[in-house]
């Protein structure tokens, strides 16, 4: 059950657009590759500084005993983003839509099979995640070698591993990562899933330094806690430290993080379960306000050498939840924003 890459096409983006006379939407100016041949050369030759990649999958979330739904959220998010205005502050021509990586719908059929117990289903899902890792790392390395910034949307947090590995291979050096998240995703090396992408990347030498911002202390697992306590290259700033005990302000916490990672290639990770009441695989009534999230992402991308932005774990399944996709669209627009 190998993962699949679908090349980005103008027809796919056009299906998401709501055109209006006298206006130009971002999606009308986004760039595409002519074919899937010679992709590394084509990406290097493209003038767009940003490459957009969608990950419509929730295999990694399932493999981590999680709530599925991140597979269906990509189109909602892209619809909001592509219908923003193409104008001076953010321009569609700055983006190359590379395509999507995920699984065929039928690849998920085994989850419903009664003749497979949970252990066998998890084993199968974790093997599938490994095939996803390979494709994500492959295309990420190509983008990194071309000197472009990658924007990745959709899917589970398992994909941080392929992104970190891909950039590290593309740049021939280990990179740093900052993760805005309620959970560390630094679980044991028990087979690939959405809860251990950072621990695998660190164990294999692709991840050099890691800071997690916003962890909920009650949910830090023993393996992650021990790793943070024993390694000076691993750090976390808990939600309670900032908002409950008020040991330092959010502003100082973010600036401290920026100072730590300012001089290294950096992957910027955002798990949407860090946002209060945002529909995600691990939705929480406690978390950051959307304005705080936007400001953190903007500050970090403005002061650090951010090589990719990864926004994951959205689970927009119900009609009343679809408007939450606008927040992710705004975060992408903040990332590509041209200064006035």
User: Which class of secondary structure composition applies to the elements?
Assistant: alpha/beta
CATH class: Alpha Beta
Which radius of gyration do the C-alpha atoms yield?
19 Å
Q: How can the largest sheet be summarized?
A: 9 strands, mixed
Please tell me about this protein's structure.
The chain has 340 residues and is an alpha/beta fold. It has one domain (4-336): Ureohydrolase domain (Arginase, Chain A), CATH 3.40.800. Helices cover 37% and strands 17% of the residues. It contains twelve helices and nine strands. The protein has helices at 10-14, 39-45, 59-62, 74-82, 118-145, 159-171, 197-203, 222-230, 239-243, 250-261, 290-303, 325-336; strands at 4-7, 50-54, 95-102, 149-153, 175-180, 207-215, 234-238, 265-271, 305-312. A nine-stranded mixed sheet has the order 1-3-2-4-9-8-5-6-7, sandwiched between helices. The radius of gyration is 19 Å and the shape is globular. The model has no long low-confidence stretch (mean pLDDT 94).
List keywords for this structure.
340 residues, 12 helices, 9 strands, alpha/beta, globular, Arginase, Chain A, 9-stranded mixed beta sheet
List the helices and strands and how they pair.
Layout: E1 4-7, H1 10-14, H2 39-45, E2 50-54, H3 59-62, H4 74-82, E3 95-102, H5 118-145, E4 149-153, H6 159-171, E5 175-180, H7 197-203, E6 207-215, H8 222-230, E7 234-238, H9 239-243, H10 250-261, E8 265-271, H11 290-303, E9 305-312, H12 325-336
Parallel strand pairs: 2-3, 2-4, 4-9, 5-6, 5-8, 6-7, 8-9
Antiparallel strand pairs: 1-3
Helix pairs in contact: 4-12, 5-6, 6-7, 10-11, 11-12
